[in-house]
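ligand=KG4
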Amino acid sequence: MLVLGIESSCDETAAAVVRDGREILSSVVHSQVREHAAFGGVVPEIAARNHLMWLPPLVREALARAKISHGDLACIAVTRGPGLIGALLTGVQFAKGLSLAWNCPLVGVNHLEGHLAAARLEHPDIEPPFIGLVVSGGHTSLYRAREWGEYDLLGSTRDDAAGEAFDKVAKVCGLGYPGGAVVDRLARQGDPARVKFRRPMPGKDNLEFSFSGLKTAVITRIGEMGGVPAGDELNHLLAGFQDAAAGALVKKTLAAARITGLKTAVVSGGVACNSRLRELMLAGADKSGVRVIFPSPALCADNAAMIAAAGSIAFERGRRDTLSMAAAARLPLEYRPAAGSGLA
Ligand code: KG4
Ligand code: ZN
């Protein structure tokens, strides 16, 4: 079963072909980072225009690299939300056009489920139930996956997403946009014990996150230091920030595993590339007997292979969407209320 995945929810345009929901035959991504960098953030209109330009060549390239033709496809899986509406619409309309022209079934995919399904591409044995943590520039949410397609939201951020905090700290420090990866690289050269920040914990007995206070604490500390420090001082500051942010994510994820009794966790999304998060999570999980799966960095960041993986699962379960399927800027992953779970 060959599935074409299409992703255009934010500033990455991507197409991929996946076989049987697990094997990547091709995966191509065009990042628009350079187009948006000058504006210090993603400009929705520019994103939509770029998707329009890149979708046709990327889909052609994905099919060519997979050495297949469109007649071999079982279905077309496309991100239908959440994300920037203009960006989503270009991908959804393009996928509908292909579906009609090629007489090929269409499956709409939730981008967040895509991030979790990415785990299956390298760990084919991964099946629910598991704890899922999606940490990206737009989301920080902890789920219990009961089944593919059935999720309980255990907690999410009350303010900034984790990636947003990394990007804002990077911006304040003059490290460009998006700065998460740069913060990570510099922090690795620093000592997290030199400039300490409190791990942001909004309440003890819940699974929620908060990152805006930590970001403000970093800005305040920079003020106390008389401005953005340079060299090792900056590295220590970033190491302290990164340690606190990663620590909070680890603590809540392992608490979710403990409360639910689940022994597997999937951590995905752009921030899951973070080296300190990986280090602390794997160490903590080892101690608590939890198996944590981090997709490799290229599959944690936005890509279309994860959309094809999630689309394959839905297609196998009989899901078919029509040409009236709408893109949705807001699209919660939790379809079912957590009735009787005691966690809601
Ligand atoms: O999943 P993603 O590619 O796009 C969204 O759906 O948001 O995530 C992008 C986010 C950005 O905020 C970026 O700064 C952050 O992931 N990021 C990182 C690292 N690599 C990317 N944050 C911390 N450490 C990293 N190594
Ligand atoms: Zn994403």
